[in-house]
Amino acid sequence: MKKSMDCVERKKPRKLEGELRELKLRLRENRGESREKEHGLRRKKKTAQVGGRTARVEVAIARKQLLINCICIKASRL
């Protein structure tokens, strides 16, 4: 166990972060999530009632801004 820890400590932290990010991305893609999640966007599918009928809506939430009005709703049909 100690031997593997030495290897990790010897690596440059910047490079290690990059590798970790790549691994996480690959993991997400395997689960079927898109790369957009990496760039501060979370995409969710929700149903919204628009004009008396329900539509499947893709909601993109900017993770770095906490304001409610930064939620962009892109409805397929309104």
Structural notes for this entry:
- The chain has 78 residues and is of the alpha+beta class.
- It folds into 2 domains: 1-33; 39-78, no CATH class.
- It contains 2 helices and 3 strands.
- A 3-stranded antiparallel β-sheet has the order 1-2-3, with no helix packed on it.
- Strand 1 (41-50) and strand 2 form a beta hairpin.
- The termini are far apart.
Keyphrases for this structure?
2 helices; 3-stranded antiparallel sheet; 78 residues; 2 domains
In short:
With 78 residues, the chain is an alpha+beta fold. The protein is built from two helices and three strands.
What helical percentage do the residues reach? 25-40%
Mean pLDDT score: 57
- Helix-strand pattern, N to C? HHEEE
Count of discrete domains: 2
Shape descriptor: rod-shaped
Summed up, the helix count is 2
- Largest sheet: spatial strand order: 1-2-3
**Which structural class is indicated by helix and strand composition?**
alpha+beta
Number of strands: 3
Over all CA atoms, what is the radius of gyration?
A: 19 Å
Helices, strands, pairings?
Layout: H1 2-10, H2 13-30, E1 41-50, E2 53-62, E3 72-75
Antiparallel strand pairs: 1-2, 2-3
